[in-house]
Amino acid sequence: MMIQRTETMTAFMMAALAVAACVPQAQAFVSTTTPPAAFVSQKTMLFSAPTATTSNNFIGTELRDAAMKLHTREQAPQEGKAATVEREPHTTTHDDYLRFLVDSQHVYRQLEIAVNELEGLAVFRNTGLERVDRLEQDIDFMTAEYGLERPEVGTPGKEYAAVIEKLSYADTIPQFMCHFYNHYFAHTAGGRMIGKKMSSLLLEKKTLEFYKWDGDVNKMKVQVKQDIEDMVASWTREQKDACVNETAAAFRGGGSLNSNLAGAHGKQ
């Protein structure tokens, strides 16, 4: 049973890293102003692409189209265009997972700092989607429960947070919002699947606080989506394009955090 579960998790991890690898290396952690989002099985979309709707909205059309192009044909048979990349199998450990949580918290903290400091992002304060405090609880749990030392923020966390910090200005809000949307909404979809898999593999089915919300998360998402659409309504065509063109960097950033689960920190 344990062997079967490990094999399933390995396939799950390889699908995740495949999408991250599909973004050209030259685009890694580079904002396009000059990634997953999260894990699922190999035949399912890795990142939480915006849902298509019948209405002509920015999230369901332009952002969605940009995201779907970064999926493989296996993950999105009708719309995927990225090549599948094979990865070396790896069984995720408690240390891997802790590093993923620490790096994730660092990125979420940078997102929250920007939202709290920029008046143009005030509407996105206290949405209920914030993750920093909940991740702190989980990091404390992991270190105490499994006798682990809290690691320093790793390269994936530092580099992706740096990308977000560079976009945390009034004149780059469109680019910032691409990361904001993809990162938070990926976690509410595929990210929860990561949590479920890790819970089964490593935590005796315990659900971490990272995967919990106070209230109905779907209602939170609806409100945040509407607030984004309201913001986009005032953007120029150039600003909309700047947001869409940031999608590859967002996928790369999310994928780099997920690489911790494949033991990437030990291969640096």
Question: What do these coordinates show?
Answer:
The structure is a single chain. With 268 residues, the chain is mainly α. Helices cover 55% and strands 0% of the residues. It is built from ten helices and no strands. It is globular. Residues 1-49 and 51-55 have low confidence and may be disordered.
Give the secondary structure arrangement, pairings included.
Blueprint: H1 2-22, H2 59-68, H3 94-117, H4 132-146, H5 155-166, H6 173-188, H7 190-202, H8 217-232, H9 237-244, H10 247-258
Helix pairs in contact: 1-10, 3-4, 3-5, 5-10, 6-8, 6-9, 6-10
- From the N-terminal CA to the C-terminal CA, the straight-line distance is 32 Å
The averaged pLDDT comes out at: 83
H/E series: HHHHHHHHHH
According to DSSP, the number of beta strands is 0
Based on CA atoms alone, the radius of gyration comes out at: 17 Å
Note the beta-strand portion: under 5%
Low-confidence stretches: 1-49, 51-55
Count of helical segments? Answer: 10
Shape: globular
Brief descriptors of the model:
disordered N terminus, 0% strand, 268 residues, mainly alpha
Summarize this, please?
The protein has helices at residues 2-22, 59-68, 94-117, 132-146, 155-166, 173-188, 190-202, 217-232, 237-244, 247-258. By secondary structure, the protein is mainly alpha-helical.
